[in-house]
């Protein structure tokens, strides 16, 4: 198996095993521990050593892994950081979700993030996430669950009953989206179903208290195209960037200070304890460099690549892009720029990325949103503002962003990993 095939195989396995941020962080931490990283708990005292490699998580949905340089002071060299986010737009199950109508059992859901809702209809859906419960010892516990099998579906209304379905019908998130789970004579107890699922997985459960659960498409990630040049999957935005950062980190032979941070809640603004606008990185850097002057010098030497997928130009809707800034799949990673600081890229950080890409002959593209359209944003400006670190926003171009099934180019992810590996070897600026 070629290196590219092996990487794509690992990626497909990672995407399939990561229906929620909780599962993605579990998968990432497992690989880091297998590679020799030491797990630390934020509640404990730490003793960090030169050359040490460490990993922490917060809320089970955000993760930071870092390496202390062997022969250099962090105040003299800083960190080479790659940042991404673990969450994706989806449908979350409400706290009291049970609906019983005409003998059908359904669940109430709410939309998380800016989901493209149309593709959620008529898909084979399952349920995954984290459940908190009282165990048989009377203690509070939590565990991840994944129903794995298709257990739900959101059926479309037949065209005969909705003649305007192909003419721009709006989707009502409250009334159109409750999924169908089966038929029942009376309203079932959803928490009882969760208790059964937990006990089947070996947990000792007295009572289920609460949960953070999402619906997800059970269709596997897959290679698409006559030459398999595309990858189709759910949650490419932004698990693809998490995977690329992890691959580069694990493959790096750098002795510099390197760091990977993947935070939750980007799709809803990042303002949480586990989000990029929260204090997770700030708290970490305070523990790594307790002296404020040394910490400020460390951050002044540091630089971050904020990796979040970019809007590839769609051949059927090319007018939605600026004609000179329409990235094409498999033509290289994209530098994202915005005059109003929706992206954190500067001419200095952009030039550095181009230099690193040229070391492996990796092509680079640019994205600037049309001047008459609003621009999205990333963790880049947030992180840059929160900790004062030089930042560039980049991403792999993709189509169908925020759909239940997105599309990216296989060459782009391989090339981006190459640039990340060069970045991790970069000496102090």
From TrEMBL:
Q: Which InterPro entries match?
A: Peptidase_M18, Peptidase_M18_dom2
> Tell me, what's a Pfam family for it?
Peptidase_M18
Q: Which GO terms describe its cellular component?
A: cytoplasm
Among the GO molecular function terms of this UniProt record, one is: metallopeptidase activity
- From what superkingdom does this record's organism come? Bacteria
User: Would the keyword Hydrolase be found if you checked this record's keyword annotation?
Assistant: yes
Q: Which cofactor does it need?
A: Zn(2+)
Look up the EC number in the record and give it: 3.4.11.-
Coiled coil residues, start to end: none
Q: What class of enzyme is it?
A: hydrolase
Arranged from A to Z, the UniProt key words for this protein are: Aminopeptidase, Hydrolase, Metal-binding, Metalloprotease, Protease, Zinc
- Is the keyword Lipid metabolism in the record? no
A single BP term in Gene Ontology: proteolysis
Q: Which family does it belong to?
A: Belongs to the peptidase M18 family.
- Matching NCBIfam families: PRK02813.1
Q: What is this protein called?
A: M18 family aminopeptidase
């Amino acid at each position: 198996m070629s290196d590219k095939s092996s990487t794509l195989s690992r990626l497909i396995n990672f995407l399939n095993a990561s229906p929620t941020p909780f599962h993605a962080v579990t998968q990432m931490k497992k690989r880091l521990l297998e590679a020799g990283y030491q797990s630390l708990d934020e509640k404990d005292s730490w003793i960090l050593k030169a050359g040490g490699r460490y990993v922490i998580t917060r809320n089970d949905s955000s993760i930071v892994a870092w390496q202390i340089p062997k022969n250099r002071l962090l105040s003299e060299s800083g960190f080479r950081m790659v940042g991404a986010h673990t969450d994706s737009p989806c449908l979350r199950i409400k706290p009291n979700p049970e609906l019983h109508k005409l003998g059908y059992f359904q669940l109430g859901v709410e939309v998380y993030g800016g989901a493209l809702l149309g593709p959620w209809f008529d898909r084979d859906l399952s349920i995954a996430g984290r459940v908190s419960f009282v165990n048989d010892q009377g203690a509070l516990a939590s565990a991840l669950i994944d129903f794995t099998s298709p257990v739900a579906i959101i059926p479309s209304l037949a065209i005969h009953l909705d003649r305007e379905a192909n003419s721009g019908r709006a989707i009502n998130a409250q009334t159109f989206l409750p999924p169908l789970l089966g038929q029942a004579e009376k309203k079932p107890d959803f928490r009882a179903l969760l208790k059964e699922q937990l006990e089947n997985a070996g947990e000792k459960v007295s009572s289920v208290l609460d949960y953070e659960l999402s619906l997800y498409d059970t269709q596997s990630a897959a290679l698409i195209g006559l030459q398999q040049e595309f990858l189709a999957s759910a949650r490419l935005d932004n698990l693809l960037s998490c995977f690329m950062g992890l691959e580069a980190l694990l493959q790096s032979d750098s002795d510099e200070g390197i760091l990977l941070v993947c935070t939750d809640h980007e799709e809803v603004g990042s303002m949480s304890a586990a989000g990029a606008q929260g204090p997770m990185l700030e708290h970490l850097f305070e523990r790594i460099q307790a002296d404020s002057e040394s910490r400020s010098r460390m951050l002044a030497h540091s630089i971050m690549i904020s990796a979040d997928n970019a809007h590839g130009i769609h051949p059927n809707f090319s007018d939605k892009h600026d004609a000179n800034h329409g990235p094409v799949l498999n033509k290289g990673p994209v530098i994202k720029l915005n005059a109003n600081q929706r992206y954190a890229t500067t001419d200095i950080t952009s030039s550095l990325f181009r230099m690193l890409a040229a070391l492996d002959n990796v092509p680079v593209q640019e994205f600037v949103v049309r001047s008459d359209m609003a621009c999205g944003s990333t963790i880049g400006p947030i992180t840059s503002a929160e900790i004062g670190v030089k930042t560039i926003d980049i991403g792999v171009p993709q189509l169908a962003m925020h759909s239940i099934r997105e599309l990216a180019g296989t060459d782009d992810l391989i090339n981006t990993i190459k640039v990340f590996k060069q970045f991790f070897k970069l000496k102090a600026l």
